[in-house]
Design a protein that fits this description.
This protein has 19 helices and 14 strands. The chain is an alpha/beta fold. It has 4 domains: 178 residues, NAD(P)-binding Rossmann-like Domain (Rossmann fold, 3-Layer(aba) Sandwich); 87 residues, N-(1-d-carboxylethyl)-l-norvaline Dehydrogenase, domain 2; 95 residues, NAD(P)-binding Rossmann-like Domain (Rossmann fold); 87 residues, N-(1-d-carboxylethyl)-l-norvaline Dehydrogenase, domain 2. A hairpin with an 8-residue loop joins strand 6 and strand 7.
Length: 490
């Protein structure tokens, strides 16, 4: 028989907890909000009050609806007031010892049928459940910040979760106006497991000198269509939070891609945590800076283009007023390539004049310098790219350059997650669209790019970096070998 939830307790009324309480009260449930002391309780009440006032001022709530939400919310400093709740969800700091201690207390206070839920974003739900006498009635219910706005809820079941409970909680999430995805208990669940691996890998590329942080951000925003670049997002999440989630992921996976990049650890140690401290990978001191790429005259007399698509690019350059020359005499040689361009450079009489160009989407061009490229030539090609209406992304001559080096391992990880039976393709796609605001889920991206293209790109990354994480998953390899073109068509 399906469970019904009418009274819900929320422990922890910070920004996230107050938002969760608001979501339940908006849906007509009775809510009991709990904090550790009177001062914290008053802050929690203020968090809810401000959120509702904003909604009223923006026309999203009426005064009557606002009063109704407050009328359904009780504030208390006593856990004992949760004894008759149908569901209690915690939203306290992401520290395992704190959560385990709280669940021990909740297990003692609450009735035997009460479902206990954790809003943890990455910690083991199983480990939390093990502190109670009701591990089968402990579940993960991971909301995203801000809870009243974000539509996704990850419903996390363990190996001992009672049959039907995950479905009942998913039904509750839909009652709240949310979209649930049901997943197993693995570190990071879906969103953080895929997202933090990608973000940490971006920090590693930065440390390796593949490209500057501003250029990596531009590449992923304009080239991959993501809402923001990885370093802007890391700063928004908080570098301390990101570092902690990476540590949790690494403890479970033991994969180096999850080991926090040294630069991430260094910034956290220095107290530079992102937007909340005014500085992280980027600075948020509101000081005006000159726009990137503001430059003077182009120092290019003649250009030679080689590679697939050379005729089309040559025609566009000619139309823009650039003289065409032969490879042995041109001031600049541009190699259109998605593979290392040093192989083209060594065939030329003047390899220092060659710059690789990898066009990504409609808006950016990765401007690739080899170890032989003269910096002035690379800068001139960057200016030339702007004339063509694209944003240049200067980068080193490494497999995948920037966009593919970050995007393809992320897609590979999603395939690995699905192949392990951890979550369905649909749920993984939904989680990344709703949880991160991505324009498409990883399996939708895979089908759009092509399985063979991604498989071959991963092989190139693995050949260069020798990291097991970059090796194509066996499922991806088998599908390409079998001639399957769309992963969702299998």
């Amino acid at each position: 028989m399906a469970r019904t939830f009418q009274t819900v307790g929320v422990v922890g009324l910070g920004t996230m907890g107050a938002g969760i309480a608001e979501v339940f009260a908006r849906a007509g449930l009775q809510v009991i909000g709990v904090e550790v002391n009177a001062e914290a309780l008053e802050r929690g009440r203020g968090n809810l009050d401000r959120s509702l006032d904003r909604a009223v001022s923006r026309g999203r709530l009426s005064e009557t609806e606002r009063d109704g939400i407050f009328g359904r919310t009780t504030f208390t400093g006593a856990l004992d007031d949760l004894r008759d709740a149908d569901l209690v969800i915690e939203a306290i700091p992401e520290i395992m010892d704190f959560k385990r201690a709280l669940f021990t207390d909740l297990d003692r206070v609450c009735g035997p049928e009460t479902v206990l839920a954790t809003n943890t974003s990455s910690l083991s739900v199983t480990a939390i459940a093990a502190t109670t006498s009701r591990p089968g009635r402990v579940i993960g219910m991971h909301f995203f910040n801000p809870a009243p706005v974000m539509k996704l809820v990850e419903v996390v079941h363990t190996v001992v979760t009672e049959e039907g409970l995950a479905g009942d909680v998913a039904t509750l999430a839909r009652r709240l106006g949310k979209t649930p995805v049901t997943v197993g208990d693995r570190a990071g669940f879906v969103v953080n497991r895929l997202l933090l691996g990608y973000l940490n890998h971006a920090a590693t590329l930065l440390e390796r000198g593949v490209a500057a942080k501003e250029d990596i951000d531009a590449a992923m925003k304009l080239g991959a269509g993501l809402p923001m670049g990885p370093f802007t997002l890391l700063d928004l999440i908080g570098l301390d939070v990101s570092h902690e989630v990476c540590e949790v992921l690494f403890q479970e996976s033991r994969d180096r891609v999850h080991a926090p990049a040294p630069i991430l650890r260094e910034l956290v140690t220095a107290g530079l945590l992102g937007r909340k401290t005014g500085r992280g990978f980027h600075s948020y001191d509101d000081v005006a800076r000159p726009a990137a790429g503001a430059g003077g005259k182009l120092g290019v007399g003649s250009v030679h283009v080689l590679g697939e698509g050379a005729d089309e690019l040559s025609a566009r350059l000619s139309a823009a007023g650039f003289k065409q020359g032969e490879a042995h005499e041109a001031d600049v040689v541009i190699a259109l390539s998605s593979t290392p361009v040093i192989e083209h450079a060594v065939l030329l009489p003047h390899p220092e004049r060659l710059v690789g160009l990898h066009l990504v989407g409609e808006d950016i061009a990765e401007v690739v310098s080899t170890v032989l490229t003269v910096p002035e030539v690379a800068r001139a090609v960057g200016d030339l790219v702007r004339v063509l209406g694209r944003t240049p992304v200067p980068c080193a001559d490494r497999a995948g350059f920037v966009v593919e080096a970050l995007l393809y391992p992320y897609l590979n990880d999603a395939v690995r997650m699905y192949d392990a039976g951890y979550a369905s393709m649909e749920d993984i796609d939904t989680a990344m669209r709703l949880g991160c605001g991505y324009p498409a889920g990883p399996f939708e991206m895979l089908d759009a790019i092509g399985l063979e293209v991604v498989r071959d790109g991963l092989r190139a990354l693995y050949a260069e970096y020798r990291e097991p994480f970059f090796a194509p998953t066996p499922l991806l390899d088998r599908l390409v070998t079998a001639g399957v073109t769309g992963i969702r068509d299998r």
